[in-house]
Amino acid sequence: MPAEIRITRPCPAPLTERQEARRRRILHASAQLACRGGFDAVQMREVAESSQVALGTLYRYFPSKVHLLVATMHDQLERMRGTLRAKPPAGATASERVTETLLRAFRALRREPRLADAMVRALTFADSGVTAEVERVHRQTTAIILEAMGQDADPTDEQLSAIRVIEHTWHSALITWLAGRASTAQVETDVATACRLIDLTRA
């Protein structure tokens, strides 16, 4: 049998200042449209018009609406991370601080439920073609949790496993809440319960 041939994508070149400004306009337009009308309101042509870029240019940055909305989620998490650094969560234990962090994020999503629904739906619909963008969201979420924990050293495998369970619980809780199958109180309780795993791990 012939040897398997693996095709790897070259790392993209860093964006210039002008390209980064254009990308930020696109993400802003995506978030604004989602806030007004949810997932269905984010149409690529309208995003292009709102961000003042050519439609072809938009597709070079984001090949599909799902790519765009997952990137929008990463951008929202990045903003949240900056807010948390300016005002760190309170709590005597790591689990209390992570709980406070995720509940603050949940309160922010509750203020913009259509945006929340659009981003979560995109993350749920994402297939293997959106792996890079989904992985960026995962890394950002993990980094936010580690910072809330006050984790200076590299996390143990046990800690990373606990964080994955917390992220799965968080994502599932958001889906059920957005679908009207879970109350705000249920989401908060489930997230707090999952976060207690952190205090059971060995640093």
Can you summarize this structure?
With 203 residues, the chain is mainly alpha-helical.
Average pLDDT rating? 91
* Main beta-sheet strand count, sense and barrel state: none
Question: What is Rg?
Answer: 18 Å
Structural classification: mainly alpha
How many H/I helices?
A: 9
User: What proportion of the residues form beta strands (DSSP E)?
Assistant: under 5%
Helix content: 55-70%
Give the assembly state of these chains.
single chain
Description of the structure:
Helix 1 (17-37) crosses helix 6 and helix 5 (94-111) runs antiparallel to helix 9. It contains 9 helices and no strands. It is an all-alpha fold and 203 residues long. It is 70% helix and 0% strand. Residues 43-62 bind DNA. Keywords: DNA-binding.
Q: Can you lay out the helices and strands and say which pair or pack?
A:
Layout: H1 17-37, H2 44-51, H3 55-61, H4 65-86, H5 94-111, H6 113-125, H7 131-149, H8 157-178, H9 184-195
Helix pairs in contact: 1-2, 1-4, 1-6, 2-3, 4-6, 4-7, 5-7, 5-9, 6-8, 7-8, 8-9
What are the key terms here?
203 residues, mainly alpha, globular, DNA-binding, Homeodomain-like_sf, HTH-type_TetR-like_transc_reg, TetR family transcriptional regulator
